[in-house]
């Protein structure tokens, strides 16, 4: 018994009944996060794989005295396959009057992510985090492999949509799983570093594409890694917090006892303390499962939902739009993508420091302000040296790279447990609208070069203003019920 007492260190008791049983961040949480992090590589690959699946492939006319391959006089056109042996452009001749179809296929991907994050968010809140997470992981694997076999363009679009649908679910459910098992002391660090695999996945696309120049094998290479999802069946349990909140105490206690044993903390008090905590929660409000409408039923929760959704809309629009804007400024497609994506890594690391010492709210305002400064400066500098333009656009992108992980962290802490997946899913859905319109905003540069950075800059300013109305969440216990969600962040009216 003496040895056991030496090994088992009591957990610091907090206002959070789950963290009070297993510890803030110990060995189990570390291993669990490392395991879940694996799925984020695939989200980066599938979200941005279009860059190389539909890479620019020049076309020339082989007919004598005809230079325009889109001319009616051109009897034979030929693609330049010196860089890419095949793309979806060459596969289905997406040129001339079909040129817009390539961009449309990427818009379909963003629509798929939008609806997938919302759908699987609702499934996770209604049926549990585990079935939603496993479902979208395996859907991503199988539909991604089928894309490689696409015989027709419409078939390709359909299954790319399904891949994206699953990818949106993976983004939402995996993040919620992590957020609900980490204590407030390490929550910001883990939630922010959780974005690093996405950045690495985005950057590594250039490496995949450099060595694999045919689109079918490229798609296969970024999909087959998902076979590792098989281990999730055995190693990813249901969220004990979700089980606790929905009244399934025996299941929650069983999982918490297993986690406590791995963490080498006492297990004998878990059942009585969890049962007592649930009675206190049940006395305040009947146990109920939330839905998306609950986010808008009460005034303060509604305001917080709208402001957080606005932050997501802006960061997705500015991040994807500015990255695309930079890539159009010229240069090597592999190097452009590698540099633009790699920029997210230092931005994410800086976000860790800023959210730790300044809080979520100030960091969100500063990063959006940084994007606004860089992009609005670019409005007045579109006629100067290209290096200065790239520097301004890079400043805007760097600001967005800080905002992105903070948006996940801030949103995950802001919404109560009963609607957390719905809330994060809704924000992700609204954010995807921003990523859908971002390419369209980039096209406005063809009218006037300064219009694109002006639109992105104005939206960044609006995000700064909207964040003013959000409460700080750093170090606070996660709100559990809808009543917690409404009162969380309000100034106390009574002593």
TrEMBL record:
<feature type="transmembrane region" description="Helical">
    <location>
        <begin position="189"/>
        <end position="211"/>
    </location>
</feature>
<keyword id="KW-1133">Transmembrane helix</keyword>
<feature type="transmembrane region" description="Helical">
    <location>
        <begin position="388"/>
        <end position="411"/>
    </location>
</feature>
<dbReference type="InterPro" id="IPR020846">
    <property type="entry name" value="MFS_dom"/>
</dbReference>
<dbReference type="InterPro" id="IPR005828">
    <property type="entry name" value="MFS_sugar_transport-like"/>
</dbReference>
<feature type="transmembrane region" description="Helical">
    <location>
        <begin position="306"/>
        <end position="326"/>
    </location>
</feature>
<keyword id="KW-0812">Transmembrane</keyword>
<feature type="transmembrane region" description="Helical">
    <location>
        <begin position="453"/>
        <end position="470"/>
    </location>
</feature>
<protein>
    <submittedName>
        <fullName>Organic cation transporter protein</fullName>
    </submittedName>
</protein>
<dbReference type="Pfam" id="PF00083">
    <property type="entry name" value="Sugar_tr"/>
</dbReference>
<feature type="transmembrane region" description="Helical">
    <location>
        <begin position="338"/>
        <end position="358"/>
    </location>
</feature>
<feature type="transmembrane region" description="Helical">
    <location>
        <begin position="217"/>
        <end position="235"/>
    </location>
</feature>
<feature type="transmembrane region" description="Helical">
    <location>
        <begin position="27"/>
        <end position="48"/>
    </location>
</feature>
<feature type="domain" description="Major facilitator superfamily (MFS) profile">
    <location>
        <begin position="35"/>
        <end position="475"/>
    </location>
</feature>
<dbReference type="GO" id="GO:0022857">
    <property type="term" value="F:transmembrane transporter activity"/>
</dbReference>
<dbReference type="GO" id="GO:0016020">
    <property type="term" value="C:membrane"/>
</dbReference>
<feature type="transmembrane region" description="Helical">
    <location>
        <begin position="161"/>
        <end position="182"/>
    </location>
</feature>
<keyword id="KW-0472">Membrane</keyword>
<feature type="transmembrane region" description="Helical">
    <location>
        <begin position="101"/>
        <end position="120"/>
    </location>
</feature>
<dbReference type="InterPro" id="IPR036259">
    <property type="entry name" value="MFS_trans_sf"/>
</dbReference>
<feature type="transmembrane region" description="Helical">
    <location>
        <begin position="365"/>
        <end position="382"/>
    </location>
</feature>
<feature type="transmembrane region" description="Helical">
    <location>
        <begin position="132"/>
        <end position="155"/>
    </location>
</feature>
